[in-house]
Amino acid sequence: MTESWVNYAERIGVDLHLELSGPGGRRAALTRALREAVRGGRLAPGTRLPPYRSLAADLGVARNTVADAYAELVAEGWLTARQGSGTRVAERARPLRRAVDAPAQAPARTGGPRHDLRQGRPDASAFPRAAWAASYRRALQAAPSEAFGPGDPAGRRELRETLAEYLARARGVRTEPDRIVICSGFAHALRLLFGRDTPGSTGGAGGTGLTSGTGGTGGPAGGGVLRGPLGVEAYGLGFHRDLLAAAGVRTVPLPLDEHGARVAALGRERAVLLTPAHQFPTGGPLRPERRAAVVDWARARGSVVLEDDYDGEFRYDRRPVGALQGLDPERVIHIGSVSKSLSPALRLGWMVLPERYVEPVLAAKGEREGWASVPDQLALADFVACGSYDRHVRRMRQRYRGRRDRLVAALAERAPHIEVTGIAAGLHAVLRLPPGTERTVVEAAARRGVALDGLAAFRHPDGPASAGDGLVVGYAAPADHAYGAALEALCEVLAVA
Fold first, then answer.
1. Cα 173 vs. chain centroid, distance in angstroms?
2. Which 3 state secondary structure label does DSSP give 441?
3. Cα–Cα distance between 226 and 24 in angstroms, integer?
4. What's the pTM?
5. Selection from 156, 151, 179 nearest residue 351 by Cα
6. What is the mean pLDDT of residues 182-189?
7. Could you tell me how far CA 346 lies from the centroid of its own chain?
8. 356 HSE (CA, 13 A, CB side)
9. Which one of 45, 156, 241, 331 is separated from 24 by 20 to 30 angstroms, measured CA to CA?
10. Is 178 in a helix, a strand, or coil?
């Protein structure tokens, strides 16, 4: 079979001639020809392909033949398909060619890695634009005029009421709107709670854990509400530790094992920061007896537990773990955001506070809302109230579970010597490596354009290296069309690890 497609330029403006020949029928020939056109550079990244009906008419084939060829190339990553935008050549599908007279040189930087497998990054292409826009329009139309004046530092009442209902239903949080303070994310919450020049950061135990110099009222003397020393998990985000150090807060690492933080090691700390639903980054929930023990410790010491619920919505192979805050709302500060479930670009988060901390946090925040956009708050309130948030989370939970399963299957086939852990929940997995190989593997991945993190990057400088060598691989960030290529590159690195 040999046929030609030559009138592509009449529709799109690109001169192109395809020879449809070879074994396997018309679908296989068309798939082969399009793949070669992309690989050879005749179809540039971003080029829009004709609709099924038009191309089928040109070639004299059934529309299903064209649709199946397009679908196969989308699955392979050569093309992308998006409603309203048609089918286009994928940005990653760049031809491998070099100018004849030009000397060999490193590829030009494009502002990021070819394959992004870093943790903590949701799929940006999956943001629910249409549903969010609809909520935004409804929120603006329904908003009272005063909503466009100076903002309440606690956040819009509409959002706090909606969050109180949602968090009780979905996370087991016990609260009311007046105990919720809107912030711009977890880092902002830490800044409000600890400030940048909190006095007494190395003080002893006892008391309420509030800063001194406020006459016992819990005010924000020195720019913060709490003071250290602060217990933290031995593995966690270095950015948070740096932020606390800049505020003069000493952090004390808690050992970790397969059951989470070993809270029995807590002593004279005034507060402790935990990720009890899904320890970051090693994975796994804090076991029930340790959840109870840390609350008992906080009650006995007059201390407080900070609960980072960073990916509480995403559970796959185990029953959801409710918020630690539900055990004692007066001893646990529950902190969450939409950075993983929707997008970090929204800059919306919340603190669910014990009653004694509400006024000090509002005082630290200031008289006016200077961080979280009021229209965005109103839009999020509508987005949650109308059910769009639940639908989006369910859809993304299914998508991320599929991503995780593809990662596990690819490693079982291509790198069976690599153990995968921490995969029952969240947006990342931990790949265990032979001792002494982590740095070499991370560097090899970087040379192949694969961005990921080693476990050592998350270890507290004073904590034990109990997690061993490993990689923290985020499977959420790549778009669907790019995920296969990212897995292929990762497996090539690990095959020789």
1. 22
2. helix
3. 69
4. 0.73
5. 179
6. 94
7. 13
8. 17
9. 45
10. helix
CB of 477 closer than 8 Å to CB of 450: no
pLDDT value at 154 more than 50: yes
Backbone angles phi, psi at 93, to 5 degrees: -85, 65
361/181 Cα distance (integer angstroms): 8
In one letter, which amino acid is 187?
A
List all residues 6 or more positions away from 272 whose beta carbon is below 8 Å from its beta carbon: 230, 231, 232, 254, 263, 266, 294, 297, 298, 303, 305, 306
Q: Residue 106 burial by CB count (10 A; 0-12/13-18/19+): exposed, middle or buried? A: exposed
Calpha distance 212→193 (Å, rounded): 13
Distance from C-alpha of 296 to C-alpha of 390, rounded to nearest angstrom: 33
Residue 28: Cβ within 10 Å count: 17
Q: Is 291 exposed, middle or buried (0-12, 13-18, 19+ CB in 10 A)?
A: buried
Report how far residue 39's alpha carbon sits from residue 93's, in angstroms, rounded to the nearest whole number: 7
Both structure tokens of 430: 């931990």
pLDDT winner (highest mean) among 66-70, 279-283, 354-358: 354-358
Q: What is the DSSP string of 34-61?
A: HHHHHHTTSS-TTPBPPPHHHHHHHHT-
Between 53 and 256, the higher pLDDT residue: 256
Task: State in Å, rounded, how far the first CA of the chain is from the last one.
Answer: 46
Write out the two tokens for 225.
């509400």
- What six digits make up the tokens of 431? 């790949």
**CA distances in angstroms from 134 to 127, 280, 286, 421, listed in the order given:** 13, 34, 38, 39
**Is 221:390 a contact under the CB 8 Å cutoff?**
no
Q: How far apart are CA 71 and CA 460, in angstroms?
A: 46
Contact 201, 249 (CB under 8 A): yes
Q: Which of 234, 115, 127, 185 is nearest to 473 (CA)?
A: 115
- List the structure tokens of 187: 């880092």
pLDDT tens string 43-64: 888 888 888 788 877 777 888 8
- CA pair distance 370, 52, nearest whole angstrom: 50
Encoded amino acid at 113, one letter: P
* DSSP structural state of residue 254: E
Matching residue, tokens 């006016």 = 368
Structure tokens at 455: 């476990």
- Structure tokens that stand for 164 in this block: 């109180």
Q: Please provide residue 267's backbone torsions phi and psi, each rounded to the nearest 5 degrees.
A: -135, -100
Q: Is the CB of residue 160 less than 8 Å from the CB of residue 153? A: no
